Amino acid sequence: MDVETQQAALDALHDDPGDLPVLRARFEHNGSPRYMLYTIKKFGFDHDHGFHLDVRLVSDELEGGVETVEAKLQEGDADLIDIDYISTARERAEGAPIVAFHPYGRTVGGLVVGEDSDIEGLEDLRDKRLGVVRRLDKNWILTRAACREFHGFDPDEEATPIEIGSKVGLTEALHDGEVDGVFQFWPIVPEITETGPYREAFPVSELVQRLSGTDNKLPISTFLTSEDYFEDNPQAIRGFKRAYGEAVDQLRSDDELWETIGDELMYENDPAVIRAVRDGWRDMVVDDWDEETVNGMDQLFDHLLDVAGAEAIGVDHLPDGLFRLEVPE
Question: What range does the record give for the signal peptide (predicted)?
Answer without folding.
Answer: none
